[in-house]
Write a structure and sequence with these properties.
alpha+beta; 2 helices
């Protein structure tokens, strides 16, 4: 009986040792893979104050926002189900831009009469207060493309303009 108990204890110790050896091998493998692959750095990207203003005829609209990236990146495309075509424009130029550089930790502002997104061929008229879905495609320095989904409110002017209105805080949209 005593011999049976000793054999059982040795078997349990052996099983524990094998389990610990297996865990040690897994830890070593993870460490080796981590060293050879490296740690991926995630691009932090933010969109603030997204808003849309429709043209008087209701066929087109322009979208404005503020963008910021933790690392150098590039806005390479914008898509929206609300319009047949989305185009990046700057100033009075009618020639579309293919991309917009986003310097690290710097705000890039899309605003009326400057850098902006044109939504051409709206699928239906936009009403003030509703939200327009857009997808931004941002390419990081490593070449990976990140999608960011945005809901831009249809307004008459920017949220900041409403807050700074000299006639008081009307919060008109």
């Amino acid at each position: 009986m005593r011999a049976m108990g000793l054999l059982r204890a040795q078997a349990e110790n052996l099983a524990q040792s094998a389990h610990l050896a297996h865990l040690a091998h897994l830890a070593l493998l993870c460490w080796l893979l981590g060293c050879s692959i490296g740690v991926a750095h995630a691009l932090m990207f933010s969109v603030t104050e997204p808003w849309v203003r429709a043209t008087p005829d209701g066929r087109n609209a322009e979208m404005f926002m503020k963008l910021r990236s933790s690392d150098p990146a590039t806005l390479v495309a914008i898509d929206s189900f609300a319009a047949r075509v989305t185009t990046i424009l700057q100033g009075q130029e009618r020639q579309p831009r293919q991309q917009v550089p986003l310097p690290a930790n710097a705000e890039v502002e899309f605003k009326p009469g400057s850098l902006r997104i044109q939504l051409s061929g709206l699928v239906r008229p936009l009403k003030r207060g509703e939200h327009v879905p857009l997808t931004l495609f941002v390419r990081g320095a490593d070449g990976t493309v990140q999608k960011t989904f945005v809901q831009a409110e249809v307004r008459k002017r920017s949220p900041t303009e409403d807050e700074l209105d000299p006639r008081g805080h009307s919060h008109r949209k």
